[in-house]
Amino acid sequence: MEREYRPVLISRRGEAIAWGLATLVVGTWAALGFLGRPVSAAVPLLAIALLLSALSISLGNWMDRRTRIHLAANGLDFENGLRRVHLDWGQIRQVKILPGRWGKKVQVLGERAYFQFNTLGEVRLQGVLKGRVGFELGDEILQRIIEQGHLRLLQSAASGTTYGRA
Q1: Domain coordinates of the chain in residue numbers?
Q2: Helix (H, G, I), strand (E, B), or coil: what is residue 35?
Q3: What is the C-alpha radius of gyration for the chain, rounded to an integer number of angstroms?
Q4: One pLDDT digit (tens) per residue for the chain, 166 residues
Q5: How many CB atoms lie within 10 A of CB 112?
Q6: Kindly report the CA angle at 41 between 16 and 28, in degrees rounded to 5?
Q7: What's the predicted TM-score (pTM) here?
């Protein structure tokens, strides 16, 4: 009954590329300033944009590596490095399932807390599998939450599905 789930971890190559580009632009900006050469206003803007992108990617990777969903007899725990949520099975009010580009987005709504996760999705480019994201056993997690929470289907449409209490 008790089980812990973790998402599929993506390659950190994109993060390394983002930091490399940010370092290259900041280094170029510094070198031009040191040499007394004029610097286009676009260079600092590009440097800031690349630094923010690299920080965002790093934060996302850091959170993915700390994300876990733990299902137990008394309820569930969600943790991602920035937030921790514990919900007893009876505290779950709704589960919303929204279609996504890469897997389904599942929102678990409790009385005072909520969290969301993605089921397994495959990233394809021109028909070639480039990576996988989300929880590999996301559909199993979803089914267990619906069953253990004693939720029933409230609405189903192309825009999404909602389970909840009557």
Answers
A1: 3-7+69-164, 13-64
A2: coil
A3: 21
A4: 799 999 999 889 999 999 999 999 999 999 998 999 998 999 999 999 999 999 999 999 999 999 999 999 999 999 999 999 999 999 999 999 999 888 899 999 999 999 999 999 988 888 888 889 999 999 999 999 999 999 999 999 989 999 998 7
A5: 9
A6: 40
A7: 0.84
Report CA-CA distances (Å) from 75 to 68, 79, 120, 149, 158. Answer: 14, 14, 23, 8, 30
Q: How far apart are CA 125 and CA 32, in angstroms?
A: 38
**Helical residues (DSSP H) of the chain, grouped into ranges:** 13-34, 42-66, 138-148
The domain defined by 3-7+69-164 folds into PH-domain like (2.30.29)
Residues 41 and 49: their CA atoms lie apart, in Å, by 13
